[in-house]
User: Fold Oxidoreductase from Streptomyces similanensis.
Amino acid sequence: MTEVTGRRAGDLPDDLTDVEAGMWQAFRNGTVYDLRAGDAAVDDPHGDAPWGAERSVRARVVCWLLLDGPPALAGRVSSLKLTGLRITGPFDLAGGTVVPFVEMKGCRFEEEVLLPEARFTTLRMVDCSVPRLEAARVQTEGDLHLPRCRFLRGMRLTDAQIGTDLLLNEAIVHRDRAGRSLAADGLAVGQDLQAELLQAYGEVSLRSAKIGVSLSLRGAKLSGPYTRYALNAPQLTVERTLYLTPAGLGNPLMSGVTPARGTRIQDFECQGGVRLDDGRFGDAVDLERARFALGDDQELSLRRVQAPELRFLGQRPGRGKVVLSGAKVETLVDRADSWPGPGRLHMSGFTYENLVPQGPFPLAERLAWVSAATAEFNPEPYERLAAVLKGCGEDEDAREVLLAKHRRRRETLPPASKLWGYLQDVTVAYGYRPGRAAVWMAVLWGAGSLAFAHAGHPPAASADHPHWNPALYALDLLLPVVDFGQASQWQLSGGWQWLAAALVLLGWVLATTVAAGATRLLRRS
Assistant:
């Protein structure tokens, strides 16, 4: 404001109250205007203690200062720094451009704060009580700070553009009429979005939001009882890491870092579904110690997520589903007791290059993990696990995984094919244990040699014939292709003839299973 009803620039308007006049002068001087009483209970902006006219200003006057305020005093920089004030009436800066620095601490707003399409350099509202914040398409060159604020009917930051950091640490946000606590679809933050120890009692919507550095929900408690999702953030882009991890309590210096050992911490908790579908994360998605309380029809959905690292280290959800279909990560860090049971895990098309288990995760449990993700037989999860194990030099474990794949597939086959599968499994383990064929061959050869040593063996023809050798005779029967000149030269009868036929049949079965296993191995190579 440069001139008011003929007065000189900076003169006080006639209709200001004493409290507003003091605020006016503090604005020109760039100093803090503090009206706290010194009693913590009375000064609590969220408490029940009444704040009277002695600490009240009209929102219209505050907006007047911010949009067209008086010039600063000589040698000073005008700014609005309010502490412990009650602001009455609608606080409406919609479409306005605010140049001065704005910081409000411990203030109580009686009506909604309306900031749609407003422009700020930096806006800080700390520990304020706000019925509702409407700030769609708001723009700041610097920070937007809202820590420890309480929003009684939610907040809207749809398509907002924050130049540096957005802080919501320890904020408490209740739901609006649509069941949302934070509507921030299309939000763009230049650096960090910190919402540590946030309490949200409605859906947090971050659809298509873009975060320039990291998104931290350490220690947050999200609850979406009126919507399908408590955290609804498909197509979210985070240039570094998404943290759904614990936060340290009682130490403001712990903000933004993983708590040190011995620090009292609060886990991230989410009551309701989580949707991160099609998200892009530059460093990692970290779910360490996260707790997900899902309904039977709700999901922790990471469909088609892409990240260098997924740290799946949360507590096992008791209900609901975990969906990783189509997700792509380079490194999967997990624990055996973090994954849900059969029928509640879906990993179709999920690819990963490295496995880094935290704690014991034996192969048997890893196979159970894959089995839990395939209610109906699907070879892909088995083949992906085998490829990763082989790439890590665990060739024996990789073969066990592929063997488990064939055994699982066998259960889907018709009876005849299933019988042939059992035969391949018993003899050569589907080609993954070819040494079994040699063992079976040795057993049959030895048994046949001992049996034929007591058999009558008239020659098949009166012409010259080789010397009778029961060991070579048994071997000649077992090997389908090689001819040792024994089987065709001697003629057995009775039960011995049936034994010889059985050895020929078993020899062909062994040869066929070995050939099938070798073909499978060559095809895989």
The chain is about 25% helix and 25% strand.
